[in-house]
Amino acid sequence: MIDSLIRKLESAVALSHASRQTLQDLCSKTRQVEARRYILREGDAPHGVPVVLSGWAARYKLLAGGSRQITAFLIPGDHCDRDMALLHEIDHSIMALAPCQIAYIPSERLKEATEADPDLARAFAWCTLVDEAILRAWVVNVGRREGYERLAHLMCEMHMRMSILDLVEKDRFGAEHLDFPVTQEELADTVGLTPVHTNRVLQRLRSEGVIRFGNRRLTIFDVKALRQIAGFSPNYLHVQRTATPAERVLELA
Amino acid sequence: MIDSLIRKLESAVALSHASRQTLQDLCSKTRQVEARRYILREGDAPHGVPVVLSGWAARYKLLAGGSRQITAFLIPGDHCDRDMALLHEIDHSIMALAPCQIAYIPSERLKEATEADPDLARAFAWCTLVDEAILRAWVVNVGRREGYERLAHLMCEMHMRMSILDLVEKDRFGAEHLDFPVTQEELADTVGLTPVHTNRVLQRLRSEGVIRFGNRRLTIFDVKALRQIAGFSPNYLHVQRTATPAERVLELA
DNA sequence: CGGGGTGTTGAAGCCTGTCAACAATTGTGG
DNA sequence: CCACAATTGTTGACAGGCTTCAACACCCCG
């Protein structure tokens, strides 16, 4: 069940068998979280570091007016910052979009593990750097692209991240399929648009034959075209070891 | 010259005299960077960790079409991630907006220092968490607020962050003054608007008597009103020790 | 079969972008 | 110290992206 976590970490750092075993141990106690349930809640004091082992979740903030902005999608292997416990109070919430299997690693155990294992320490530090890079890319996306390109960019990113986890299927016609269990409303809250307008942009992307979206899945008929539309460059994801399934995806760039 | 860095870190963690001395040593070699010059450049391999000791800088990304999105303002005490060296290549640039005094801490020395001094380690880890929180707040700002509130929110944040550094002057009429050496074009690239529209929003804020902006300075006549407009809540900055100058600012919330 | 969540569509209007010209300010060199 | 150039700020008219509101279609689930 921690395959994705290992795949993600290994896109940056080669891990020994012992390191993997440590991860296994850290994530031994898991909890099933239903869709629409909290994984973390604004105002909470942090207790353990949540790790998504399967499913999809979203990090978001609510505004006074009731609107919501999603600031991250958490897919398998994604987790909160290792030092989260330093904060007295969480400033955002995390909610399951699809049923999730979550491990909550006690902060102390994670600290001990990374202090004892330099590879793990590097791997987790790398995760923090990439999470920040993704956040910067999202600021750019929302700030400087219009809806059409914006949605395309988000899809390119998720496609790439899922590829690293080897969670993308490719059929013999060249189309690529991945889970994307997100409603149009949630998509809208992610890219900073209205559900209505998001719907219209999706229709455009569909009518142009670039994607299909619905039924909790995304099909990309033409990855190159989508990346063209988005102006997508995968460099910010900092995949450093090309011996992963992401290889063939990187080469598209 | 490292007062700001110390003030910033101490808003989270009390530092011993020895810790402060370590910081002093780490930042001993400084470099003056003129306005509009690079501090870090996309595509570079990271060498040292830049720390802003004085001045203003901006982290940004350029898009294919030539547009720019600023993803962070770096004010005194701000710095890049301590583990930056783990990345092979930087995915964004940092440029001085005003003349800056910069220390480039060699990654190894910073690593040694934080391994030897748990307080420093905690302080730097806290910085990373706050940087991420700010980034999330920017995604929300650009994604879910309109220009008027968006600019107000940015000003509230910078006001707060400058307060922590004790860099805000308060006159006897209640107005608060802070350096804000940013052109309207740079402001526009920060909040995801056009320079023209940014100008119009600024005029509105001025005409309403909330702020004055220009001449490299921002004057806030009515902090409460500005926060009201912005829907600003300072919780995401995670100021944990109220014995700082930020105290009176927090109390406004 | 019914109901709630989700997706789709149309019309109207606002926020924001674009283009283009001009004013004000800053900086520089003579 | 002034004159000129370059940058920055300001304004108007117009267009376009996006929002809002509201109604309706669809689909999954009990």
Notes on the protein architecture:
Two copies of one chain form a homodimer. Chain A has nine helices and eleven strands. The first copy, chain A, has helices at residues 3-10, 17-26, 107-116, 118-144, 147-164, 184-191, 195-207, 223-230, 247-250; strands at residues 30-33, 38-40, 48-54, 57-62, 68-74, 93-96, 100-106, 169-170, 176-179, 211-214, 217-220. In chain A, β8 (169-170) and β9 form a beta hairpin. In chain A, α3 crosses α4 and α5 crosses α8. The two termini of chain A are 30 Å apart. The mean pLDDT of chain A is 94. Chain A binds chain B through residues 12, 59, 61, 63-65, 67-69, 71-72, 81, 83-84, 86-89, 91-92, 122, 125-126, 128-129, 131-133, 135-140, 142-145, 191-192, 231, 235-236, 238, 240, and chain B through 12, 59, 61, 63-65, 67-69, 71-72, 81, 83-84, 86-89, 91-92, 122, 125-126, 128-129, 131-133, 135-140, 142-145, 191-192, 231, 235-236, 238, 240.
